[in-house]
């Protein structure tokens, strides 16, 4: 799936996750956030950058790990990204859909 | 003399000790297993204890029964691993040096990670079936229970034996029916996942089975705490579920030993190469079973399949050859569904559980993602195989890598 966002032609997975990690910019995140009806604040951005850093390091991501990051607690994370904090934040951070590996 | 040190004498560690002792020259290699516990638990059996199907004695044997002659078994508590020094530090201050280390420390149950679990209601109305104590206490409660709301909750991922909470609620449904009080019991399955199971086809099959058995399902519920006064589960997005009996899958984390050693990820699992099973960081450290951060189920079947791969790679490493054996994440799980029936799933890193048949020479085929009596017998038979074949590191008639034989991809899957 292809979409043009802030002048860039980007490719997305079936469920709407960016497939090219390096193509991500803060502006793209802001545009994607609009589709989720979220106005991105600095706090949001901090979470997105944390997720990108963790993903790049190959670490597994969980709501709990964001909650322990010192950026925001779990309750706060739910308020920032209502409805599915890890799924929505991953989408906006330009990383793949989180998988629960069980 | 050189030494292979195995930290953890559970399913994974015991299997490895048996395999290695047979293969390595006793004059050249010393093999040591380190574990503070003297009892080996058949953990898949815990599930049956609350319903009186198994008694505690059915799932307990001394660890020493399964440690072969020529392997040193030390019942000592490890404090931490010192991978830079190739040593393990014990609680008693002693240090054990190794040439190779196999980390088989498993998971540890951390009920206290969910606020309110270990309060006044613990083992009165709040239970687990992941420990012998929890399963026994729950069994006692159920025997005199006259009905109400029974809730099963999965508060965190990953947890071992991902199908166990489903099996528990299926068995509970059958148990209350047999007791004649099914109409007085409200059963609810609460999970942080978006469905009954993670992978789509299995999730659909199991979801339908839950519906058929009139079991409520609450999904995407990330538990914040248990309110002891209101007897309610509370999620981070402020939803609540009432209970009379709460059965929780305690938060699973890696062993404290891993935490103390600074060798774990956020949840205390050791970053491990998912194909070679070598530690990502240390060449002479391998990780087997639940302790590894592999993206597959934490389950005995996985440890068993992985053991064969790890064994090959360790031999290669000892001989200075490249690590060519590659694990595929193979898992194989029986799912008890009650009334003497069961289902079976077989999958790996890349292939989700699919319907079809599972070939097993001499016994099978078993039905995959089908609810049948033969699958139930498979599970019952497995306890014998576990004690007599699996722990002793003998071959089971199942290949370590997953096979597509008998599996059917459905049309939806082909369109992907």
Helix content of chain B: 10-25%
Which architecture of the largest domain in chain B would the CATH scheme give at its second level?
3-Layer(bba) Sandwich
- Could you describe the largest sheet of chain A, including whether it forms a barrel? 2 strands, antiparallel
Got a strand count of chain A? Answer: 2
SSE class of chain B: alpha/beta
- In whole angstroms, the N-to-C terminal distance of chain A is 28 Å
Write up this protein:
The complex is a heterodimer of chains A (102) and B (416). With 102 residues, chain A is mainly alpha-helical. Chain A has helices at residues 26-35, 42-56, 63-67, 74-80, 85-92; strands at residues 2-5, 8-11. A two-stranded antiparallel ribbon of chain A has the order 1-2. The longest helix of chain A is centred in the middle third of the chain and has 15 residues, at 42-56. Chain A starts with a strand and ends in a 10-residue tail after the last helix. The relative contact order of chain A is 0.19. With 416 residues, chain B is α/β, with parallel strands linked by helices. Chain B folds into three domains: 2-106 and 255-318, FAD/NAD(P)-binding domain; 111-252, 3-Layer(bba) Sandwich (FAD/NAD(P)-binding domain); 331-414, no CATH class. Chain B contains eight helices and 24 strands. In chain B, a hairpin with a 4-residue loop joins strand 7 (87-90) and strand 8. Chains A and B meet through helix 3 and helix 4 of A and loops of B.
């Amino acid at each position: 799936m292809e979409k043009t966002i802030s002048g860039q032609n980007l490719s997305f997975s079936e469920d709407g996750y960016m497939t090219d990690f390096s193509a991500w910019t803060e502006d793209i995140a802001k545009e994607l956030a609009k589709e989720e009806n979220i106005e991105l604040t600095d706090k949001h951005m901090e979470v997105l950058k944390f997720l990108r850093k963790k993903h790049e390091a190959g670490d597994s991501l969980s709501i709990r790990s964001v909650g322990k990051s010192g950026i925001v607690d779990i309750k706060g994370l739910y308020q920032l990204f209502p409805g599915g904090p890890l799924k929505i934040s991953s989408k906006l951070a330009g990383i793949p859909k989180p998988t629960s590996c069980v | 003399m050189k030494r292979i040190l195995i930290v953890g004498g559970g399913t994974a560690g015991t299997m490895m000790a048996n395999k290695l002792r047979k293969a390595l020259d006793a004059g050249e290699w010393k093999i040591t297993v380190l574990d503070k516990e003297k009892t080996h638990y058949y953990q898949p059996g815990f599930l049956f204890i609350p319903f009186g199907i198994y008694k505690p004695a059915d799932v307990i044997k001394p660890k020493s029964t399964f440690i072969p002659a020529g392997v040193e078994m030390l019942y000592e508590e490890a404090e931490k691993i010192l991978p830079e020094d190739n040593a393990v530090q014990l609680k008693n201050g002693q240090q054990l040096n190794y040439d190779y280390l196999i980390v088989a420390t498993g998971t540890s149950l951390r009920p206290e990670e969910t606020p309110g679990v270990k309060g006044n209601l613990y083992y009165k109305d709040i239970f687990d079936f992941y420990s012998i104590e929890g399963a026994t206490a729950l069994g006692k409660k159920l025997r005199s229970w006259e009905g109400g709301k029974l809730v099963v909750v999965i508060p965190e991922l990953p947890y071992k034996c991902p199908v166990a909470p489903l099996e528990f609620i299926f068995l509970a449904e059958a148990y209350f029916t047999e007791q004649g009080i099914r109409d007085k019991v409200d059963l609810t399955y609460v999970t942080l996942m978006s469905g009954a199971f993670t992978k789509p086809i299995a999730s659909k099959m199991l979801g339908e089975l839950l519906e058929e058995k009139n079991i409520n399902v609450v999904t995407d519920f990330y538990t914040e705490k248990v309110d002891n006064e209101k007897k309610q589960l509370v999620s981070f997005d402020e939803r609540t579920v009432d209970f009379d009996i709460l059965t929780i899958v305690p938060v699973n984390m890696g062993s404290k030993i891993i935490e103390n050693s600074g060798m774990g990820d956020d949840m205390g699992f050791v970053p491990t190469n998912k194909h070679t099973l070598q530690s990502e960081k240390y060449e002479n450290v391998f990780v087997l079973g639940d302790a590894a951060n592999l993206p597959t189920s934490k389950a005995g079947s996985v440890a068993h399949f992985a053991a064969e791969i790890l064994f090959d790679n360790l031999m290669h490493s000892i001989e200075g050859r490249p690590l060519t054996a590659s694990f595929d994440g193979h898992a194989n799980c029986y799912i008890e569904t009650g009334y003497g029936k069961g289902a079976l799933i077989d999958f790996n890193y890349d292939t989700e559980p699919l319907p079809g048949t599972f070939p097993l020479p001499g016994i099978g085929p078993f039905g995959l993602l089908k609810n049948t009596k033969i699958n139930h017998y498979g599970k019952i038979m497995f306890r014998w195989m576990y004690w007599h074949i699996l722990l002793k590191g003998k071959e089971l008639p199942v290949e370590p890598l997953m096979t597509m034989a008998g599996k059917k991809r459905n049309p939806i899957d082909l369109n992907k």
